[in-house]
Amino acid sequence: xxxxxxxxxxxxxxxxxxxxxxxxxxxxxxxxxxxxxxxxxxxxxxxxxxxxxxxxxxxxxxxxxxxxxxxxxxxxxxxxxxxxxxxxxxxxxxxxxxxxxxxxxxxxxxxxxxxxxxxxxxxxxxxxxxxxxxxxxxxxxxxxxxxxxxxxxxxxxxxxxxxxxxxxxxxxxxxxxxxxxxxxxxxxxxxxxxxxxxxxxxxxxxxxxxxxxxxxxxxxxxxxxxxxxxxxxxxxxxxxxxxxxxxxxxxxxxxxxxxxxxxxxxxxxxxxxxxxxxxxxxxxxxxxxxxxxxxxxxxxxxxxxxxxxxxxxxxxxxxxxxxxxxxxxxxxxxxxxxxxxxxx
Length: 344
Fold this sequence. Notes:
The chain is α/β, with parallel strands linked by helices. Helices cover 24% and strands 26% of the residues. The protein has 2 domains: 6-152 and 290-338, Medium-chain alcohol dehydrogenases, catalytic domain (Quinone Oxidoreductase, Chain A, domain 1); 164-286, 3-Layer(aba) Sandwich (Rossmann fold), CATH 3.40.50.720. It has helices at residues 46-50, 100-103, 144-162, 181-190, 205-211, 224-230, 244-247, 274-278, 292-304, 319-327, and strands at residues 6-14, 17-24, 32-41, 67-74, 86-89, 127-131, 136-137, 171-175, 194-199, 215-218, 234-239, 254-262, 283-286, 311-315, 334-338. The strands form 3 sheets. Strands 3, 4, 5, 6, 7, 14 and 15 form a 7-stranded mixed beta sheet that branches. A 6-stranded parallel beta sheet has the order 10-9-8-11-12-13, with helices on both faces. The protein starts with 5 loop residues before the first strand and ends in a 6-residue tail after the last strand.
C-alpha cells in the first residue's frame, strides 16, 4: 500500500485542549528513526503536558510516552535497528551525555533529557520520530497494546522493586491498585515477596488477590500502617496512588530500615512525621522509570512470569475521552490508544 504523506496526531493545542490534526510525515534526522505507532498508553504524567504545566513545555505538543510501533525509516548513522522491527519508547527518550548525572552513568536523571510528549512529540499519533538510543526491542510474546503500559507503568514499578535491595520473602506493600499499582502487585508477587496490597474499599480485594497479593488492607476500615506493623513491618512500601495525604502516614508501617518508595506523583504535599524516620532509620525516596535496556528487562520479566497490564483500548481519535477516563480514575487500569493507520 502506498504511504500517505500525512498522518493523524492528537495535539495539545492549548492547555486542556486535545485535538486531532493532520501533519506532514517527517523524515528522521541523524541518529533517529520514524516509528509507525501501533499502540500508545495514557499515563497520569500526561496531565503535565495536557494542562501545559510541565516545566519548559511549549504548545502545541503531542503527548504520549508509552509507545510501541514498527520502524519505517532510519536516519543517518542508525545501525543497530532495522526497518520493520517492533520497538518501544518510554518517557526519558534520550540524554545529553554531557551533564554530570550522564557522565556518572545515570542517564535516567539527565539534566537535559529528551522527554517524549514534552520536549518532543510523543505517541498520541500514527507516526513518531524517536532517538535510536532511546529504543527498546519488544518481544513477540506481547501484543503492542499490552507492551505499551509496561514501558512506563511497568518499568517504574519493576525497577523500583528490583533496585530496592530486597530479598525473597521480604514483606512488601503496594499502595494503590490503579495503573501503576496493579502491575506493582504482580511484580512484587513474582519477585518472591510477601505481597500486601493497600486499597480503599472492599471492591478491590478480589482484584488484589487475583493479581497475586497475599493480603489486602482496606484503608476504609483499617489503618494500613498499624496492620503492617502487626505483620512485622514492611521492608518496602511502593507508593503508587497519587495522594500525598495517603502516602505520608505509611512510613509508620515500615520495618526498621524499611523504605517508602514513591513512584506516583501526587499534586498535594506528602506530610511526614520525623519520629519513625529517625528512630529505626527508615527512609523515603523516589524512583523514576529506567533506561531502554531496563525496559527490555521489564518486558522480558513480564513474558517470563506472564505479567500483563489490564488495559482498555480506544482509537486515536478518541484520545480526549481516553485521557478524561484516566484522569477521572475510571480506567481499568490503563488506557491504550490504538491508531488505525492506513499505511500498511
